[in-house]
C-alpha cells in the first residue's frame, strides 16, 4: 500500500499510514492495536529517537505523539515533521493538560489534542475527522492547483507568447489583443480594443492588409497569411515587419453568450502576428552583402556585371553607345603599407566619395577589388562624353587627402572601352578597359586612354614577357653592366653606375627600356632592383677590397623600393650582407619620387645620409627642379639629364639650361655628373663650366664585369679629389 491516503467519499473511514509514538510500551501497543483494527497501517516508535528514524525511513499521513518523552519530546518531533514531511498531520496524545503545553503544541502544528487516559471511541472519531478533513483539503488543493496551472498556462501561452495574439470582429475591430503588443509596438491593450486594425497598419500596406480579411477562400483549414509593416508609437523604430496569420471563427461553436464584457463575444477572426523584422533586415543585409562592397557601400563585381549586361542589351536594342572604365589608384599600396590598413580603408572611402560626386544619374561605380574600380557610363553620345568624365575623375583625385595628421596624394589610371567599338560583350568590355588602363600605367600613370586593337597584340606580348621575366629572376638571367663616371679634370674613373641587362634565352641581350616598364607594372621591380644591388655590391666590393678604396657605386632605385616602409633597413641589410662600405654607395632617385611624398622620403634620405650613403638626383631638370626641396634634403650630387647635354651647341636653349644647373650646383656646393657625353665639343663645354664628372659613350658604353675589371687595373687606385 502507498503511504498516501486511500480517498473515499466523505464520511467514510480513511485508511492511512500512521506513526504512533510513546515511551510507554503498553500504551503504545494498545493505541496501535486500536488503529490497526480500523484498517490503518501503523508504525510504532518507542520513544523520540525511534520516531526520528521512522520519519527518515517512511512517509506518513498522520503522526500521534506523546509530548513528554525522555530523549526527544513531541515538540521536537513536530518540528522535524514540519521540515521533512510537511503534508503529515500530527495529533498529540498526552497526559500534559496545562494551557501552555496545549497552546505550544497547537502552535507547532498539532491538528488536535487528546488527553490521557483517552476514550477509544473519542480517539477514533478524532482520527477519522482529521483524516477526512485532510483528504478534502488535499482534493480541493489538487483541483485548485489544476485550475490555477491551467489558467497560468493559458496566460503564458497568450500573454507571454513571442507573437501578438488578437481577435477581430466582423468589421476588423480589435476584440482582444495580448500584452505582447505593448513591448513590440508600444500600444496599450485598452487603447486598441474597439479600434480597426488599420490603425496600426503602415500606409504602404493599408490596401493589401484590409483586403486580406475580405478575400475569398479563407477558412480554418486555409488561413490568411501575409507579411505587412505595422506602425509603432513613441520613440521606437517607425515600422516593423510582421507575419500575420488569421483564422475565421465559427459563430455556431464560439461561446458568445458567456457574459464576457471584453467584446470577445463578437469575435469573428483570431490570429497571431509574428515579428519578423530581424529576419527581413537579415535578408536585406545578406542581399546587400551579396551585391555590394561593405567598406565603400558601392556595388561589387557581381552587381556591376548584372547592370552592365542589362545596359548592353538596352544599347543593342536602341543602337546606342556605352562606356566601361577601369580605374586603378596610383600609389595606394605605398600609403596602405606605410600608414596601415585602417588608414588605407579610410582613403578608399574618401576616394569613393569624391568619385561619386563626378558621376551622372544612372552611372554605376563599383569596387572591383583592392584599389580597383569600374565605372559604367550608359547611353553616351561619343568618346567625348567618356573623356570629360575621365578628366573630372582625375582632377577630383589630384587634391590631397587628409588622413588624421597625414596629407597624402593619390592619382588614378583610367582605361576606357566603348560599346560596340571595343567589344560587344560584358567580359570583353571589362577586359579591354583593363588592358587600356595598363597602358596608362606603362606611360607614367595618372591619365586615361581609350582601348584600341593594337593594345591586344601588345598585351599578348606583354604576358609572354612577364612570364619570362619571372623565370629570369629564378634562373639568374639578369646581368649588371657598369658605366664609368670619370673625373673631367684627371680623366680617372671615380665611380661606376650599375645598369641592368637581361640575357633573354631567345631574344638575346635586352636593355632596360625593353622590360623595366613591365617590371614596374607587375610589381617585380623591387625583386629586380634588389638582385641588381646584390650583384653590384659583390662586384664593386671586391674591387674596393682589391685596392680601389674610393671607387663609388651608383645605383638607380625604383619608386616602389624608396616608398616602401622598410626601405632604409632593407638597403642597409644588403650592404652588411656583402660587407660593402656605405660611404662608397650613391643611390640615384628622381625628383618626381621625392615630390610625391616629400615628408616621408626626406626622412628616409636623412637616415641614409647619416649612415654615410650618398644621395644623387637623377635626370635633374626634367622634373620639378625645385630649389625648395634641394636645400631641405641631404643631397650630394646632381645628374644633368642627357637630353640637355645633347643640345650643347652654340646658341641652343639646352646649353643655357646646363649653364644654370651647373651654376646652381656650385652655389649649393653639390657635385655635378653630366650624363650622355658623346663628343669632344660637349666635354670641352662641360669642363669649361666646371662640371665635376661626366659619363657617356665618349668613354664607351656600359660594359660587363670582366671588361671593367681589366680597365680598373690600368687606372690609379686613388681617384682625384674635388
TrEMBL record:
Domain Response regulatory: residue ranges: 17-131
Keyword terms: c-di-GMP, Phosphoprotein
Residue positions where 4-aspartylphosphate is found in the record: 66
Family annotation (InterPro entries): Biofilm_reg_signaling (IPR052155), CheY-like_superfamily (IPR011006), EAL_dom (IPR001633), EAL_sf (IPR035919), GGDEF_dom (IPR000160), Nucleotide_cyclase (IPR029787), PAS (IPR000014), PAS-like_dom_sf (IPR035965)
Cofactors (names): Mg(2+)
Domain EAL: 462-716
Catalyzed chemical reaction(s): 3',3'-c-di-GMP + H2O = 5'-phosphoguanylyl(3'->5')guanosine + H(+)
Pfam families in the cross-refs: EAL, GGDEF, PAS, Response_reg
Domain GGDEF per the UniProt entry, residue ranges: 320-453
SMART domains cross-referenced by the UniProt entry: EAL, GGDEF, PAS, REC
Annotated GO biological process: cellular response to nitric oxide; phosphorelay signal transduction system; regulation of DNA-templated transcription
GO molecular function list: cyclic-guanylate-specific phosphodiesterase activity
Enzyme nomenclature, EC number: 3.1.4.52
PAS domain ranges (all copies): 150-202
NCBIfam families linked to this entry: GGDEF (TIGR00254), sensory_box (TIGR00229)
The protein's name in its UniProt record: cyclic-guanylate-specific phosphodiesterase
Organism listed in the record: Marinobacter confluentis
Taxonomy of the source species: Bacteria, Pseudomonadati, Pseudomonadota, Gammaproteobacteria, Pseudomonadales
